[in-house]
Amino acid sequence: GGDAIVNAAAAAQAVFTSGTPATRPAAVVLAPVDDWRVGLAASVLMGPPLRAPLLYTEGDELPQATKDALATLKPRGSRELRRTQVIRVATNASTDLKTRDIKGTDPAAIARSIDAFAGAARQRTSDRVLIVSSEDPAFAMPAAAWAAKAGDPILFSGRDAAPEDTVRALQAHQRPK
Questions:
Q1: Mean pLDDT of the chain
Q2: pTM attached to this predicted model
Q3: Surface-to-core class of residue 28, CB atoms within 10 Å of its CB (0-12 exposed, 13-18 middle, 19+ buried)
Q4: pLDDT at 19 exceeding the cut of 70
Q5: What is the DSSP letter of 53?
Q6: What is the DSSP string of 22-60?
Q7: Which of 94, 112, 116, 136 lies at a CB distance of 3.0 to 4.6 Å from 165, suitable for a disulfide?
Q8: CA angle 16, 103, 79 (to 5 degrees)
Q9: How do 130-133 and 54-57 pair as beta strands?
Q10: Using CA atoms, how far apart are residues 76 and 55, in angstroms rounded to an integer?
């Protein structure tokens, strides 16, 4: 594809190909394309139990590739989330589908909110957590694949210290691996 927005839309449509109710995703995640940390932290929502594909917004706008993917995917509504079809992470992009919002004041706070949201969906906290650099995407990005596969949340650390939101999220996990 030509950019991250097109690539995410194509990947989501490739995974959920037939469009039958059994193969359509329960929910889709929308995240802004302009902050890699938000998309990275949101990758946990692609893991169990939600398995929600990640699509990108441009600020609070839905790009055409994202609109087309939403129309093709037709999320059916997540039973774990009271029939929510779209999970908006740090965006207010408008859609006609039933939405739930995950917000935060910075990437560490957003990651903590995503972690709590994912824990509520799975009805327990994860016993594993991925801590990655909030400063270097080259070292952090591989965590997305693991989070999407295993459903383990991603939290951020700075060079010399962990943000308060990361510390609090870890405390909620009660000594995770």
A1: 94
A2: 0.94
A3: buried
A4: no
A5: P
A6: TTS-S-EEEEETT-HHHHHHHGGGGSTTT-PPEEEEBTT
A7: 112
A8: 40
A9: unpaired
A10: 16
